[in-house]
Amino acid sequence: MKVAIVGGTGAFGRGLAARWREAGVEITIGSRDAARAQERAAVLGVSGATNEEAVRDADLVVLAVQSSAAIDTARDLAPVIGAAPVLCVASELRFEKHGVFPARDAGSIAEDVAAIVAGPVVSGFQALPAAQLAQSGLLDEDVLVCGDDADSKQLVLELGQHLVSGRAIDAGPLPNARALEGMTAVIVHVTRRRGGRPRGRGRRRAGAEDRLQVRGTRGPARGRRSVRPCARGRR
Ligand SMILES: NC(=O)c1ccc[n+]([C@@H]2O[C@H](COP(=O)([O-])OP(=O)(O)OC[C@H]3O[C@@H](n4cnc5c(N)ncnc54)[C@H](OP(=O)(O)O)[C@@H]3O)[C@@H](O)[C@H]2O)c1
């Protein structure tokens, strides 16, 4: 299977590329600049090309450009992407003094992308931090994915399972991307607050131990994790 990661020179795209390459997926990272793509790709042991070349003949296109460029990039590449499925990982956040907010008032980036490209769009992975993907080992959390097309959603769920030790969860139809994108603001907000201001010292960066993670209640499935008891009234 060939996966093209558009904007794969960024931290998140490189994290995905490294994980999926280890899982045996054929990866091409794309960039607006072929030389930059090839340089980053060589480090990761994958292929690098312009975004246009990367998406040609891809079985899945991951739109991993800076979130504010996702819609314009989808518009530019739509003729080359054709009917291939597109995974949208973007969420637009607004950082203000008193908190982190979803930058959108309505809809989602993923739905806007779906109105542009011919193939199905899946939305997911917004809550996985690039910094954690860059480290070794599966992330100890669940991953949420939504979309209207069952086959492409299944493909992305399988790829998600190469990223986390928890579950890759079907989060329903594509309009639920509004919640996934918005929830990223909540996760980043809480994580930053937990990183907080220790007594008597300046603000420190939130670390992995401060992170709010996506975790569902665990069922008995898959054998590789023990079932955690869930206290009454608590999730
Ligand atoms: N960072 C995270 O922790 C994280 C977590 C979950 C999801 N995401 C999502 O993943 C996506 C990528 O995140 P990131 O942190 O890797 O972003 P990033 O480093 O800011 O950008 C990724 C790539 O986007 C390309 N790019 C930048 N501006 C562009 C423009 N105007 N037009 C076209 N391409 C442009 C650049 O590639 P070239 O210059 O090489 O073309 C850049 O390397 C975003 O949608 C973000 O919401 C990020």
Descriptive notes:
The structure is a single chain. The chain is α/β, with parallel strands linked by helices and 235 residues long. It has a single domain, classed as Rossmann fold (3-Layer(aba) Sandwich), CATH 3.40.50. The chain contains eight helices and ten strands. It has helices at 11-22, 34-44, 51-55, 70-81, 109-114, 130-133, 150-160, 177-195, and strands at 2-6, 26-31, 47-50, 60-63, 86-88, 93-96, 99-102, 121-124, 143-147, 168-170. The protein has an eight-stranded mixed beta sheet, sandwiched between helices. β4 (60-63), α4 and β5 form a beta-alpha-beta unit. The chain is globular, with a radius of gyration of 18 Å. The N and C termini lie far apart (37 Å). NADP nicotinamide-adenine-dinucleotide phosphate is lined by residues 7, 9-13, 31-33, 36, 64-67, 69-70, 73, 89-91, 125-126, 128-130.
Widest sheet: strand ordering: 3-2-1-4-5-8-9-10
In CATH, the topology is named: Rossmann fold
Count of beta strands = 10
Largest sheet composition: 8 strands, mixed
The CATH class name reads Alpha Beta
Write down the secondary-structure element order.
Answer: EHEHEHEHEEEHEHEHEH
By DSSP (H or I, 4+ residues per run), the number of helices equals 8
Q: Classify the helix fraction into a percent range.
A: 25-40%
Averaged pLDDT, please? 89
**What oligomeric state do these chains adopt?**
single chain
Low-confidence stretches: 220-235
Tally the structural domains: 1
Report the bound ligands by name, code or SMILES.
NADP nicotinamide-adenine-dinucleotide phosphate
- Radius of gyration over all CA atoms, rounded: 18 Å
Second rung of CATH, namely the architecture: 3-Layer(aba) Sandwich
- The gross shape turns out to be globular
CATH superfamily annotation: NAD(P)-binding Rossmann-like Domain
Spatial gap, N to C terminus: 37 Å
